[in-house]
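ok new one. same drill as before - structure tokens go in, u give me an amino acid for every spot. 386 of them this time. try not to just spam alanines like last time pls lmao
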């Protein structure tokens, strides 16, 4: 029996898993053997590829100390215990015309050896998962804190089954639910090849490129769906698409910035969800903030800052009027209805806007600058002096 235990442990260490253990036990016991750990979602049977669902339900009930009827005749069973608690079963399934040699086998000893090897397999799997978790967490932590060169990022991610060769998107979510592990599992389950790690109250994820020439669009759309699924766990935000893995530290910073902004500005969150075309200007602004925040501040100062200051000083609403005017396709009557003001009031405010900014809302080029200035203000607002 000691030799059998040794061979089973060797099978585990050689990567044959529970199936290898079940095969050795079945050969020794002279009949089919099933190993079931319902809490871990693990099951194996040898010989054959029979459905194990019935045995899994039976094992789940037995672990819960119930006394269910087995789905098929069982000749012998042994409980698999960890820390003194049952976690699964090793089952020798009954068969007709059992040989005399099989009847003389120490079935209890065979199944106990299989139970011990099963615990070894669980320990090996746990150690492997922990090593992967540390490697995954280490890579994401590196990307959060420093620039990681393209080759290094690509190599480390590849070891975790994540192909960054064609770029990726970063996702950051502020998890407020009591199940952060469920949020992590949701990302990795829904997005094949992704990396996800929970740290400092936030979920960080890297979503590798999908598609061919349309990878930026397809990846961003898929990332948006994942962010929407995460809403039951907390607010989530994604970066724009970064084709160079060496810039993923920027992607994470961008996603963090987007998250901070959408938490306080629902209108920006809505704009980002309206599709790639609608969110493009905001995406450009977020990327510009990551690379050169002062450039965005300068653009804001050169466009709508005078309106913001005027509104604060005189408690007026020039900025809101301008925003509604642009949203109403520059129709003064529609703007007046939207802000509950007279058409002449709208005309007066547009004149005041022209005087303060030296930009004319009725000229196409100036309108574009003013519209972009408003978006820059929405992003910069919390950091601006009052």
């Amino acid at each position: 029996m000691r030799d059998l235990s040794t061979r089973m442990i060797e099978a585990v260490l050689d990567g044959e898993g529970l199936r290898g253990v079940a095969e050795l036990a079945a050969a020794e016991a002279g009949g089919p053997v099933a190993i079931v750990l319902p809490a871990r979602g693990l099951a194996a049977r040898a010989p054959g590829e029979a459905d194990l669902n019935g045995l899994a339900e039976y094992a789940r009930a037995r672990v819960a100390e119930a006394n269910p009827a087995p789905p098929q005749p069982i000749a012998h069973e042994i409980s698999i215990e960890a820390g003194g608690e049952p976690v699964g079963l090793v089952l020798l399934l009954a068969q007709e015309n059992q040989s005399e040699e099989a009847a003389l086998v120490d079935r209890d000893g065979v199944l106990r050896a299989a139970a011990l090897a099963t615990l070894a397999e669980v320990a090996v799997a746990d150690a492997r998962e922990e090593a992967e978790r540390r490697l995954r967490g280490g890579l994401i932590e590196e990307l959060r804190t420093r620039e990681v060169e393209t080759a290094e990022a690509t190599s480390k991610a590849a070891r975790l089954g994540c192909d960054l060769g064609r770029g990726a998107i970063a996702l950051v979510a502020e998890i407020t639910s009591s199940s952060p592990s469920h949020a992590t599992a949701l990302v990795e389950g829904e997005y094949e090849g992704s990396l996800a790690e929970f740290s400092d109250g936030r979920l960080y994820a890297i979503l590798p490129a999908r598609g061919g020439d349309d990878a930026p669009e397809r990846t961003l759309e898929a990332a948006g769906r994942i962010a929407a699924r995460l809403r039951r766990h907390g607010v989530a935000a994604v970066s724009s698409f970064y084709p160079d893995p060496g810039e993923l530290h920027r992607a994470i910073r961008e996603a963090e910035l987007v998250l901070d902004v959408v938490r306080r500005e629902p209108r920006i969150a809505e704009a980002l969800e309206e599709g790639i075309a609608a969110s493009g200007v905001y995406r450009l602004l977020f990327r510009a903030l990551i690379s050169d925040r002062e450039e965005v501040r300068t653009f804001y100062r050169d466009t709508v800052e005078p309106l913001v200051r005027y509104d604060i000083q005189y408690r007026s609403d020039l900025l809101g009027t301008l925003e509604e005017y642009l949203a109403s396709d520059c129709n003064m009557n529609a703007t007046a209805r939207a802000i509950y003001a007279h058409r002449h009031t709208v005309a007066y405010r547009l004149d005041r806007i022209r005087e303060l900014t030296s930009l004319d809302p009725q000229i196409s080029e100036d309108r574009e600058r003013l519209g972009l200035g408003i978006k820059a203000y929405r992003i910069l607002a919390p950091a601006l002096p009052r």
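The CA atoms of residues 92 and 242 lie 54 Å apart. and btw The two ends are 80 Å apart (CA to CA).
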